[in-house]
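Quick question about two entries, pasted in order.
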Amino acid sequence: MPLFTSPRTPVRGPGSGGGKSIVQYANFLIMLLVGLGIGILAVVVSGLLGPKKATRAKLMAYESGNDPERGGVGTGQRFPVHFYLVAMLFIVFDIETAFFYPLAVAYQKLPQFAFFEAITFVLLLLVGYVYVLKKKVLEWA
């Protein structure tokens, strides 16, 4: 008898169709363990193989190629945020691609309403892109 059932609850066998099979949970558990294993392995290997000698230059903050001691925050000079704006734009448009991949895979099975949702999403991103162009964020000079 399973651990978390009341005496009144009938116990169903594997072929009765009353619940999820253990195989579905095992697949999830295997994927979870593989993901955690890869993450832990990456941290351990980088700790073992990484540089051990800390110098002043290695411990200094890296600000997009700018020396933070002579041209960063707190020095009275303007802090260049252009690199960060471009990085944020990349993230936004990269996430757009991640949202469209499942739509493309299941396009034949989706209702027509999903097509109009995708068009609306693209139009909203297009408005953001036009705004970025007008603000000249992508100009490097």
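Here is the second entry:
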Amino acid sequence: MSTILLVDDEPELLDLYTEVLELMDHRVLRAHDGREALEIAHARRPDLVVTDWQMPRMSGVELCQRLVQDEQLCDVPVIMHSAATDPHAPGVTAFLSKCSELSEFEEVVNRALSDSGVYPQGPPPRGPYLEWEHEQVCSMGQ
């Protein structure tokens, strides 16, 4: 079981992505902006960060810059998700549109964890639990 720090200022998306990640058997830490996420990351050292791009107090781009500059956190993979186009932030392992299918979200999370060595034998098999509607996720992220 890995620990994933999920960062988003939209409560509905935090709830949805939390449920998906927990169904994938991950521990989920939640933050509502980059500043809160950085504090949690220092205290709990997640295996992966999934962050929104635009948030109050500290954006996802600034969070990525801070993670890359931090000796203790610079090797934590980061997935950035946004309703906008790819923002090209430093240290981002993968970019995911908020309008992506949840099965793609699952694949990107598994690939990031595998590439970082959290899954030395490869990711667990996909589960049948991602039956969410694409339109539901897309409408939440706008």
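Reply: The CA atoms of residues 34 and 63 lie 5 Å apart. Residues 102-115 form the longest helix (14 residues). Hope that helps.
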